[in-house]
Structure formats: C-alpha cells, structure tokens
Write a structure and sequence with these properties.
- With 136 residues, this protein is mainly alpha-helical.
- The protein has one domain.
- Helices cover 60% and strands 7% of the residues.
- The chain is built from 5 helices and 2 strands, in the order ααβααβα.
- It has a two-stranded antiparallel sheet.
- Helix 2 packs antiparallel against helix 5.
- The protein is globular, with a radius of gyration of 18 Å.
C-alpha cells in the first residue's frame, strides 16, 4: 500500500513538472490581448514624447519575444490609465513566464532585441499573432 502511494505521488509530481515546463498561458494571453485591442483609447500614433500614452513599443526580433513583451507591457502600465487590471495581469503573466522559463514553445533571449518600434496596437497584434501561432 505504501509503495503504491509513493509511486502515485512521484508520478503526479512528474506530471505536474512536465505541465509546468510547457505552460505558456496561451489562452489567457490571447484573451487579455483581445480585450486590450478592443480598447479604442489605445489606438493612437507612436510618439517619442515623454508623458504620452501613445508611446513607441518594441516589436521583438524572433527569439526575443518574451523579454520584449515584458518590457512593452511594463511601459504600458506606467503610461496608460485605462485597462490597468488587464495590463497588470498580462505583464505579470509575461514576467512569470520569463522568470521561471515555463514556456518551452517560445524561444527566450534574456534581453529585448528589436529593430523597430511600433504603436500600442502594433505591439498588441505582435503578441496576439505570436500566441495564436502557438495555439495551433
């Protein structure tokens, strides 16, 4: 009886660790991103001026998506007054995925590398497309 319980417990722990390594939060990230894309206050031109909620955000190079998504959502939190609860959840999800290396499907560089910056909408669309590709 004790040996079977031990083997069951070990198997359960192994299963949970495999699930944790492959967790990417795909559905929740797509849901949060869609909610933000529906927020019309976020659609404005990319401006380099300080204090503008219409900041330019990094459009990541392949393999650097996660750190750029962390950086971009953090910047959005600092400059955007609307959609704070959704932005907070999105930022925290990206930060946890980066810190814990939970998403094996998404290559992960440690630094945000990008060649271009875009509007909030372009940034959110990049997140949406990245995670929709993983959802297939």
């Amino acid at each position: 009886m004790t040996a079977s319980m031990l083997s069951y417990t070990l198997f359960s722990c192994l299963l949970l660790s495999v699930q944790a390594e492959s967790y990417c939060g795909v559905r929740e990230i797509i849901r949060y991103t869609n909610r933000l894309l529906d927020d019309s206050s976020l659609s404005c031109p990319c401006r380099q001026t300080a204090g503008s909620s219409c900041s330019c955000l990094p459009i990541p190079e392949p393999g650097h998506e996660l750190p750029c998504f962390v950086e971009g959502t953090k910047h959005m939190l600092e400059t955007n007054v609307s959609s704070k609860p959704v932005l907070t959840r999105l930022y925290q999800t990206f930060q946890a995925l980066l810190d814990r290396n939970l998403c094996e499907s998404l290559p992960r560089g440690d630094q945000c590398q990008y060649k271009t910056k875009g509007t909030v909408i372009e940034f959110l669309v990049k997140i949406q497309r990245t995670y929709q590709a993983m959802n297939k």
